[in-house]
Each structure stands twice: as structure tokens, then as C-alpha cells.
Amino acid sequence: MDQPVFEKSIKKLSRKKLEHIILGLAQYDQVFRLQLIARTTPMMMDEVREFLTIQVEQLRQGNNILTIKFQEDLSRITDSFMEQVKDLLEKQEVKPAAGICFSVIAVVEPLIDEVEDEGDTLQQIIHYAFSLLRTIPQHTTDAHSFAILTGVAHGVRMSIPITNRHYEKAWIEIVDLFRKSCRSAGVINHPVLVEEE
């Protein structure tokens, strides 16, 4: 209900005033600051994973059990990463987009065992990332990209300890999706096309 009023107010602000407000909010709201970084800063897959791993440790504040607030704060950050993913997909930059999704899932999936509730918020984060990965064939038909993504998806999946893999079926589906897309793009002989046992 207040969205139109908010948008109208924002449009009235000068660039300098808007920057001042954003910097002020970022100074006092850690999660907002992290959202800005996640939304606007280009990162490689390993950088995203390292960034999220560090933030998880800071947000948990030494707690062994992850609270609902922790999950909500983490969701705000990962949602910002997903907005960056959507921007990348629109530009057909599928490899960095997939890299962000892979990293988010790899960091969040093992946390499912540490929540104080059913972990619905963390599960939503993971489902969102997988759903964006499934759209990648809509954004490219490049065989080389699919070959790379097949190998990377398998590698990230295997990097998660088997006891922490709660989305094994989804991982296998993504690997198969990229493998089939690679074949559809005309690649017949490639190591990633070998079916897993």
C-alpha cells in the first residue's frame, strides 16, 4: 500500500541525497550493507562462496543452532544475489549466473541440519537457486557453456559432504539437464556426457 508513496518520494530525491541515505542505512544495518554488496558487486563463484561462508559465521554469532532471524537475514542476502543472477541471465551471461546459484546452494544446503525449526526459509533459498538454474537453457544454446556447467555442477555437488546433501535429486536433475542441453547443442563426444553410475 505504501509502495507508490515510497517510489514517488524516491524519485524526488537528488542523486547526492539518495547516496547519503543509502550510506547512512548501510552504516547502521549490517544486512542491508551485505545486500548492497550481493546485489551490485560482480564476483566469481569461489568469491561468492567465500563471501557467504564468512557472513554465515558472522550472522550466527557463535550459536550452534541457527535461529529464525539468522535464516531471514541470510535470505535477504541471498535474494540480492538472485537478483544479480537474473540480471546476468538477461544478458546471457550464464556461467557467472550459474556460479552464484551453485555457491548459494553449496553454502546453505549443509545448514539445514543446524536450524531451530523446519528450516523452511533455508529450503526456499535453495529452491529459488535451483529454479533459476533450470531456466539457463532458455538463455543460451552454447554447447561449450553447457559442457562447463555440467562439470562444475557435478564438482560442486561432490564438494558437499554426503551427509549434508539434502537435495541430491535436484543436483542430479541439474547435471542431467546441462548434459542433455550439451547434446542438444550438437556435442557428441565430451567427457561430461558420460553418464554417472
Give me some keywords for this one:
197 residues, mainly alpha
Description of the molecule:
The protein has a domain at 41-140. 70% of the residues lie in helices and 0% in strands. It has helices at 3-12, 15-28, 30-40, 45-60, 68-90, 94-108, 120-134, 143-159, 168-184. The longest helix is centred in the middle third of the chain and has 23 residues, at 68-90. It is globular and about 55 Å long.
Percent strand equals under 5%
Straight-line N-to-C gap: 54 Å
What would the average pLDDT be, to the nearest integer? 88
* Count of DSSP-assigned helices: 9
Task: Indicate the radius of gyration in whole angstroms.
Answer: 19 Å
* Low-pLDDT segments: none
Chain-wise SSE layout:
Blueprint (H helix, E strand, L loop, with lengths): L2 H10 L2 H14 L1 H11 L4 H16 L7 H23 L3 H15 L11 H15 L8 H17 L8 H17 L13
Helix pairs in contact: 2-3, 3-5, 4-6, 5-6, 5-7, 6-7, 6-8, 8-9
Summarize, please:
The protein is an all-alpha fold and 197 residues long. It has helices at residues 3-12, 15-28, 30-40, 45-60, 68-90, 94-108, 120-134, 143-159, 168-184.
